Amino acid sequence: MSGASSARGLLCEGCDAAYWNEARLRCAVCALPLASARRGMQRRDGAEAERGRHRCETCLKTPPAFDATLALADYRAPLDGLARGLKFRARLALGEEFARRLALATEDWLDAAESAANGVTDVPDLIVPVPLSRERLIERGYNQAWLIAKPLARALGTRADATLLRRTLHTAPQSKLDRETRRRNVGRAFALRRTDLRGLHLGVVDDVMTSGATLDALARTLKAAGARRVTNFVALRTPKD
């Protein structure tokens, strides 16, 4: 990451151009990178084919509770170092940088001619971070997802709330678990401080998305309270679940 500075001094110009601006076809629901040869499509007739555009097989067969995911880039070098810097080394300014880029990506997504097919149709009514357990928040001293969520909401001209969701269980770190264990790990880990979300579009923010188990559990909790739509905003997405 040495060399000439990018706009915010976080990446050299070469890395900035090569990774943030990488063209990547992703599943509109879970943001998993799709094979370009298949272009992530299931060939069907008429409107069914249109609805299935840019969706991975898993999201077609067993859709998660959330409706769409916007991810900036893959979780790999050198950007994985930025995510770790925010999460474990208190490089707090990185939250603003991730938020700035997510806001720009959201505006592009909304302005695109196929925005409805891509899964984002409006700015969320409320932006919330993936919550940390009390134990982890005390240990770390801050919630890295909130450091992205708050400036993202400000950039999109909407509200942010760090208290709507709370983590009721102190679970093991998801990165150390397999996919099925992750789902069991977070299945009952969240609760709401406000139980009426009828008709609202909720945006859920996290720094890294791996299997989507945490975000799926959160979306189920939000939709049980009446949320109309749940869109995930994540800085980085692992190339594989």
Q: What would you note in describing this structure?
A:
By secondary structure, the protein is of the alpha/beta class. It has a single domain (13-237), classed as Rossmann fold (3-Layer(aba) Sandwich). It has helices at residues 13-20, 46-51, 57-61, 79-88, 93-111, 115-118, 134-140, 144-156, 179-186, 213-224, and strands at 68-74, 126-129, 159-160, 165-167, 190-192, 201-209, 229-237. Strand 6, helix 10 and strand 7 (229-237) form a beta-alpha-beta unit. Belongs to the ComF/GntX family. This is ComF family protein.
Question: Which SSEs are present, and which pair or pack?
Answer:
Blueprint: H1 13-20, H2 46-51, H3 57-61, E1 68-74, H4 79-88, H5 93-111, H6 115-118, E2 126-129, H7 134-140, H8 144-156, E3 159-160, E4 165-167, H9 179-186, E5 190-192, E6 201-209, H10 213-224, E7 229-237
Parallel strand pairs: 1-7, 2-3, 2-6, 6-7
Antiparallel strand pairs: 4-5
Helix-strand sequence:
HHHEHHHEHHEEHEEHE
Which architecture does the CATH hierarchy give at level 2? 3-Layer(aba) Sandwich
The percent range for strand residues is 15-25%
Overall radius of gyration: 17 Å
Return residue spans where pLDDT drops below 50 for at least 5 consecutive residues: 1-7, 37-52
Write out the strand line-up for the largest beta sheet, numbering strands in chain order.
1-7-6-2-3
- Give the terminus-to-terminus CA distance: 27 Å
- Helix count, per DSSP? 10
Protein name: ComF family protein
Family: Belongs to the ComF/GntX family.
InterPro entries: ComF/GntX_DNA_util-trans, PRTase-like, PRTase_dom
Organism: Paraburkholderia tropica
